[in-house]
Amino acid sequence: MKGRYLASGVLLLALAWVAATLVPRGNSGAFDLAGFGRLPVLADGRIKPMDTIARTGLLMLQGRQRLATADGRAVTPEAWLLDLLYRPDVADAYRIFRIDNPDVLSLFGLGTGDSAGQVRFSFAQLQSGLAELERQAELADPVDAAARTAFQRAVVELREHVDYYSRLKYSLQTPDLADLAGDLGDPARLAADRPGFAAMEKFSPLRAVPPAPGAARPDEWETVGRSLLASFSTGAVDPTVGFYAALGRTWRAQLPDDFNTLVAADRAGLSARFSGALRRCAIESFFNGAEPFYTSLELYVAAFLLAVISWLKWPEELGRAAFRLMFLAFLLATTGILTRMWLEGRPPVTNLYSSALFIGWGAVALCLILERINRNAVASSAGSLIGFGTLVIAHNLSLSGDTLEMMRAVLDSNFWLSTHVVTVTTGYASTFLAGFLAIIYILRGVLTRTLDRATADSLARMVYGIVCFATLFSFVGTVLGGIWADQSWGRFWGWDPKENGALIIVIWNAVILHCRWGGMVRQRGLMCLAVFGNIVTAWSWFGTNMLGIGLHSYGFTNAAFQGLIAFVALQLAIIGLAALPRAKWRSAAAAGPA
Amino acid sequence: MPPARQNPLALFTSLRLTVVLLLLSIVLVFAATIDQVHLGVWGVQEKYFRSFFVFLKVPGTAFFFPVFPGGYLLGGVLIVNLIAAHIYRFRFSWKQSGIWLTHVGLILLLAGEGLSGMLQEDNQMRIDVGQTRRYSESFRENELAIIEITHPDYDQVVSIPTELLTGDNGLQHPLLPFVVKPVAYYPNATLLMHFQVPNAPPSLATAGEGDDIVVTPVPVTTKPDEVNAPTGYVQLVGPDGPLATVLVSALLSQPEAFTYQGRTWLFSLRAKRDYLPFAITLEKFTHDIYPGTDIPRDFASTIRLRSDDGRDDRVVRIFMNNPLRFGGRAFYQAGYANNDRTTVLQVVRNPSWRIPYVSCALILLGLVIQFGLHLFAFFRRRLRGSAGRPVPGGAAP
Prior knowledge:
The complex is a heterodimer of chains A (594) and B (397). Chain A is mainly α and 594 residues long. Helix content of chain A is 67%, strand content 3%. Chain A has a two-stranded antiparallel sheet with strand order 1-2. In chain A, a hairpin with a 2-residue loop joins strand 1 and strand 2 (46-49). Chain B has 397 residues and is α+β, with helices and mostly antiparallel strands. In chain B, helix 2 runs antiparallel to helix 3 and helix 4 runs antiparallel to helix 5 (355-383). The longest helix of chain B has 35 residues, at 15-49. Chain B is globular. Chains A and B meet through helix 21, helix 22 and helix 23 of A and helix 2, strand 13, strand 16, strand 17 and helix 5 of B.
């Protein structure tokens, strides 16, 4: 009875916490920043809320969404964006450029000490060295992306960040304009601003002005600069341009009441023609604020800890609590994935980021089933570990920008994305799961006395079953990829790196099965092979993208390379551990005969 | 499994050989993937997969050593291993029908990939808006076309594959009043005008503009974004001795001309052509991007297809993921050029393109049966309440 209360108590606590994260965040100050965050704007080919612009901008520039002023006052993403758009001199003092490379810092005459022990610097701090940054970046430009040194990569990346930051300043007005709203009423002043409008048209990454009623294409939003230039010939200023100019005036003067009235009126004005876009933007900004994947990540950590502790103490109660937490985290991740699918109108996996989400999701789904069958917290621990790991990977992938990307024409096929990509990703997930279960077997067997005969056999059954499942899915996924390739560019198999990676996973799973069937390996050998499957899968998932070639090289990432090396080394170390003589295993019974 | 030393046949039937072959093929595929960075996808296919051995050049010499079994060898032995195992080791039973299906499918898949390697031809067609084309061009193979333009109404073409230009033998053809004798041939070369390289040796060419041009051979490239520019000299020999030596090169925009006995020929070294029994006219090309980005949303070619027998005359829209299959070939939207005024279609001819579909269906069915039986057995045991048994796995002998 006591156990039931423990597991239920843990679940209730977790539920309360999850519910707290889902409460829409109100405005902490007098400004309706949340309302501003829901305003739609077209960027990177899709209509998204200002909130997403602010958050992805912060993530890209400084690696996190949290921001504070030098005196420790918290700045919300929306407030940061508003400052950048309307009060660049204020924004330039925020320390938001993350620079890790000491050589790059020295370009600016800065050291890590200049940021109070932090790695983030303000635009004002960088300003004097920007010319030198540009010169260094131009030196690095001709070098192949894959062949650049760490310094060159850092320089090119920082130049990109500075460039994006500077271009954002041209989105709603030019940085040096004191009062666009006032100028709009005065033709002479407006004419004097004209060169600035041309710069805005050229630089602005945001297209904030919706097409006029009756326009041929409803997705042809334009930049404020372009709309302003057009107004010289039409003689009329677009209402949205007027709105953003007035909004700038209220933000600069810090007049919350006027600000809030304007935001509400603009949203009401848009609602007639853009109700769909407004609803999507509202949901997306709520989704951004709720951060379901982050909550889910923390729940996985808790579930993993409970599951591991359950092997030492209170196996029933803690095991059940771990299972429930994992299930809750899974539900949350499912909701998150579904929301992304709805926002994008796409199957779950469309890029490297979403593949990380989905691999974690699939592995946890399998673990929920396994745990129901075995009830020994083994699958719970493996599942929550994979869930956690894949969410960490996803977080790091999200640092390169908006994760809801538009699909290039060659990939633009919901049918194949939802069949080939989902199946092959399920294959990855299950191969990883087999490997992680095997890791649990090895670590528990070598390091603890908790791996008894029954647990060992149950683990072996799970690994074997999951390898069968993985073989089936990775094979089907690979074949579907072949069929897609044959349908879209005329060859079933082209030896493209990603195809080869998937093929190696299939062959590796076949090797495991044949070794097992031929009696070439027993339990311990099976576990070692399954752990090596982690290396094979990680290479296929990330390593092939690092080659930077082929039709699938959509997610080239540099920082991931070191992570991959470390992961491979860790797997090899675990295999080495498993190879210790049986006498050294603390759970001697489990290593089994032969 | 009988030990190998008792019966030499046992080696070919053994499961150990299967595992070894699978491991070797993993190494092969991995090495080939890494090597793509240097060799490009085509170079890798030739070196690793469409070969019996992978050769490595001994540094500093011209010797190549076989260092690893190639795709044909591994695939071939795997087929032998599978067939032998099924003849000598397996006995057919319903319980094993999944394995049988999987393996038959696998044999078919391997054989199909081998056939594709030998039979598949990849060509491309570049068509400007409004232009009509009746042939596709090879990506990598070239030919020397000797085009007689004497007649006002038609041209007469004699085409010589470039492989024949590497030999010493004179090439004779009933349509030509001279023998074509290869003098030099370079699979890849650059051309410069003589005044740019003043101290270069005199040109071998004696006719046309070729004596003003300096040919410099360069290494063959296999990179995906580069093309080779084959170049050579051919000597034209009449009954009374040499008539002229002509420069032929894929880099010449205007082919060299030669006149003899009142007849004129052009010597064009060009991408090998595959003439089609139909004509394709590009009516329209569209290229959509997502607003405010460079990300392509869609490319589409609207073409008119007219067959020579007059039975087909229709308008087809070829776009990403939607090819046209016609006349034993498949036409894919591959790219665009020339400010969206030119479409690039990839033309694939592969008589064995259906084999992978059949084999994959067999394998899929086999795997589902095999693992389905496992799962079924597992749950039946659980229902009987004996879940603590050892791993279920004895399905294969």
